[in-house]
């Protein structure tokens, strides 16, 4: 099993390299966003020699073409200038690397599957990339408690396939599952499609092993549901995006594999009806509701056209995807039928389809999951991921359409209605400062006005530290800065990310 | 206008990983998600399209199998079939149900229901037999148009384009006829909600092979079902010289 994981990962990397090679390079992040390099050490040949002495020749990449894919994020937004990629295989190796880097003031950028959307996973200048791709072993799985312990570089989909063999599923699911790492998911507190049902990672991560900037290994890897012994330190590493420590191992709680799964895809007349339908789904489907997602016409239209995917139903202003997870097929389908019959009667659902066959459900989910990447085919995409109170959930999309006029190809919104989280994508033929300045900080100001969050699940990364104050009070930012100072006094861990320079 | 009989089989969903039973008598089907054989879905779509184009007056879906075959028939009804016939075959009898039996059942029903066209998928994805259409045509002594990628009504017959090695073959056939659907014949629709609701009320008749006078005693014995051999793990070699050496060592060059 473990061997096949290694094989899968190396295959993915090769594919990624080919993909990047065939595309024009994005502008350097430092130039695009006018950033100054901080006073870190620079990598000398002797440093590379040291890394080779602990990792061997093959796990220290220095060839420009080998390093390139690690410098670019997948939405082609950021490009760093790293010249060295390290691929440790164990916590001890990560610890040795960090101790050395800390002593020499060499900055590092941890990288998982590099599927982040805010530039957190790629370097900005010459930070050493620490790739977790080879730390992909599963330690243990307790199929009674559902506790899975594994290394940070395990790919989410591989883990899901593995735990499914034992009658369990991973508590999170997202479009990037075939590439993203569990360590990255944890470090960024990734949300995804089933947060509504299984909660976020602060709940399902049971324990964490992480390495501090000075190489100290922090062992909080207990796989316990309840453990009130002192400060809950694991939470410091969940969502801190590798700025407080590098996650090397994760213990995570896996819920049971649902025996009965149904998926509905519906056409809805307007956004008001989407909200009414959500309310109805919560009460009529109750405990079996596992996802409630929405997408507007342009989201689906763009995905269908750009990626040539089939839309199972006709065209509607809004689409809603409802999934149920339960333990009894007859019970679930009866509930679902009643819900459907009643909401078709009220007109909340105009039309749609339901499926319980895995192949058909995959086709429908694939359409929803592909929206995130669909805009890229048309040029450049400005991506926003915000939490907004449900009554204002969709307001920004028409406002932005008006504000941008014909400067944008498309402005579309889709997301996790159940979590109050909307993704707003603005597609343009190419990145321009003009459009950028129309969007930022405007969007964040608007979100702040309704007490929303400027980053619901994507994180702050490189792209948003200057806007964090729209969602966090000065008092909170100061404590974050103090924690950073305590845990990483030289600031070598993922610099230029998360916290703004001036707090 | 013609009456169309369309055969649908309930098979393990193609997104599910199939497991061989430990005693090698077959594959594990208990608790495994099933759905309509994808080629049969194409057959249903084609039949429904014929009805929409007023080539067909009625579409009858037929499935042979246990009680759950009715779910597959409901799917066909939701896609647009008018009524369904469930030929109930359960337990060990279903385990040994073979294409010849199904062909005899379809032939008998075609006569009883006065069908002009029988459409089935070219093969089922579970046993890959690819025999039912051909045997049904032989039993009825009707012409057969297998592996259809395009079906048109011309005059009092059908013009069918077939996918063959290296190209397409266009044939004409008189009616009645048997057609088997290939992958590119059409893209099956998703049943819409109103149609899913309506399908629950469409007529579904249950019969047994005995009612139809068809003997389903097995003609073929399955000796053993086995997993394909596990692929050997690959290895990474450091450079071209090592690769060449390995290939020589393995006797490949």
Automatic annotation (TrEMBL), chain A:
UniProt protein name: D-2-hydroxyglutarate dehydrogenase, mitochondrial
Q: Give the EC number.
A: 1.1.99.39
Name the Pfam families for this protein: FAD-oxidase_C (PF02913), FAD_binding_4 (PF01565)
Q: Does the keyword NADP apply?
A: no
The record's listing under PROSITE patterns reads:
FAD_PCMH (PS51387)
**Cofactors per UniProt?**
FAD
| Catalytic activity, reaction form | (R)-malate + A = oxaloacetate + AH2
Which positions fall inside the FAD-binding PCMH-type domain? 77-257
- What family classification does the UniProt entry report for this protein? Belongs to the FAD-binding oxidoreductase/transferase type 4 family.
Main location (coarse class): other
Q: Which InterPro entries match?
A: FAD-bd_oxidored_4_C, FAD-bd_PCMH, FAD-bd_PCMH-like_sf, FAD-bd_PCMH_sub1, FAD-bd_PCMH_sub2, FAD-linked_Oxase-like_C, FAD-oxidored/transferase_4, Oxid_FAD_bind_N
Q: Which PANTHER family match?
A: D-2-HYDROXYGLUTARATE DEHYDROGENASE, MITOCHONDRIAL
What keywords is this UniProt entry annotated with?
Answer: FAD, Flavoprotein, Oxidoreductase, Peroxisome
Automatic annotation (TrEMBL), chain B:
**Location of this chain's protein in the cell:** Mitochondrion matrix
Please state the protein's primary subcellular location: mitochondrion
The record, for PANTHER family, names:
ELECTRON TRANSFER FLAVOPROTEIN BETA-SUBUNIT (PTHR21294), ELECTRON TRANSFER FLAVOPROTEIN SUBUNIT BETA (PTHR21294:SF8)
MF terms in GO: electron transfer activity
Q: Which GO terms describe its cellular component?
A: mitochondrial matrix
Native source organism of the sequence: Mythimna separata
Its recorded name reads: Electron transfer flavoprotein subunit beta
- Record-stated family: Belongs to the ETF beta-subunit/FixA family.
Provide one Gene Ontology biological process annotation.
Answer: fatty acid beta-oxidation using acyl-CoA dehydrogenase
Q: How does it assemble?
A: Heterodimer composed of ETFA and ETFB. Identified in a complex that contains ETFA, ETFB and ETFRF1. Interacts with ACADM.
Kindly list the organism's lineage: Eukaryota, Metazoa, Ecdysozoa, Arthropoda, Hexapoda
**Which InterPro entries is this protein grouped with?**
ET-Flavoprotein_bsu_CS (IPR000049), ETF_a/b_N (IPR014730), ETF_b (IPR012255), ETF_beta_N (IPR033948), Rossmann-like_a/b/a_fold (IPR014729)
Q: What does this protein do?
A: The electron transfer flavoprotein serves as a specific electron acceptor for several dehydrogenases, including five acyl-CoA dehydrogenases, glutaryl-CoA and sarcosine dehydrogenase. It transfers the electrons to the main mitochondrial respiratory chain via ETF-ubiquinone oxidoreductase (ETF dehydrogenase).
Assigned keywords, A-Z: Electron transport, Mitochondrion, Transport
Residues forming the Electron transfer flavoprotein alpha/beta-subunit N-terminal domain are 24-216
